[in-house]
C-alpha cells in the first residue's frame, strides 16, 4: 500500500465512524481527495479569501486564527493528524473568510475542492449526512470552547486543555496554546510550572 492509499484508508476510517458508506459511495468520494504537502508556517487561507478546500490532516499541525486590532492574533482552533481542517464556514458558505489558516509544522494533507465536495454530497445522501454530522460536531465543540473561554478561570481552561489533549504541549508552541486559551504567555508559563494533573 503506497502513501496515498494509506492516507485514504485513514480518511475512510474517520468518515466511517459517523456511518458506513457503500462501496459505490466511497468509490465516488475517494478520488476527489488529493494529497498535498506544505512546509512549516505556510498560509493556506488568508482572511478575505474564500476557502476553496476542505482538508484531512495526514500528518502535521495547523492553526486557524484571527488578527484583530493592533495586529494581535487569537488562535481559534488547531488541527492535527486524523482530523479535518480548513475554514469551514467560508468553505461551506463560499463567503470570504474572517480567519487565516496556517501550518505550524510540515504538513501532509488530503484536500477536496468545494466543487467536488458539493457535487458528491449532493449526489449521495450518506455523504451529505456525514457532512451534516461533521459540521454539527464541530459546532458543538466550538460552543463548549466558547463556554470555557467565557466562564472558566485561567487554571480551569489550562486543566481542561491538558485533560482533553495532553499531547499538544509537545506538538504546539506554547505561545499559540496561550493564545488559544485567551491567556497571556506569562500566565501560561506559570500554569505550566504549577499545575499538576
TrEMBL record:
Residues 38-129 form the Cyclic nucleotide-binding domain. Gene3D superfamilies: Jelly Rolls. It comes from the Bacteria. Pfam families: cNMP_binding (PF00027). This is Cyclic nucleotide-binding domain-containing protein. It comes from Larkinella punicea.
